[in-house]
From TrEMBL:
The lineage of its organism: Eukaryota, Viridiplantae, Streptophyta, Embryophyta, Tracheophyta. InterPro entries: Chromo-like_dom_sf, Chromo_domain. Pfam families: Chromo. Residues 84-94 have a biased composition (Polar residues). Residues 73-83 have a biased composition (Basic and acidic residues). Coiled coil: none annotated. Residues 73-94 are annotated as: Disordered. This is Chromo domain-containing protein. Residues 31-77 form the Chromo domain.
């Protein structure tokens, strides 16, 4: 037997914010790199980054290969222009 279900309107995301294409797909855009991990195999090391994507929560962040991320999103790996951000400002004030 089916029961009546009331949806939560706070979970609805406007489609204008996501920019859905005609084929009902959209491209996720990385917002921030959260973590870095190096896995050592027998003959090489594999570097992975934990990436936070737009329109997702931190718990939904995914591990991505360094090579792929640097090819597709090089702007995430450029040095920051504003020295007030990050650990460099902490070191310079000491």
């Amino acid at each position: 037997m089916l029961k009546k279900c009331m949806g939560d309107p706070s979970l609805i995301i406007p489609t204008e914010d996501i920019e859905i294409k005609d084929n009902l797909s959209y491209e996720e855009i990385p917002v921030q790199i959260l973590d870095r991990q190096v896995r050592k195999l027998r003959t090489k090391e594999v570097v992975s980054f934990k990436v936070l994507w737009r329109n997702q929560f931190v718990k939904e962040a995914t591990w991505e290969a360094e090579e792929d991320m640097k090819k597709r999103y090089p702007h995430l790996f450029e040095p920051r222009e504003n020295p007030d951000q990050g650990t460099n400002s902490l070191i310079s004030t000491l």
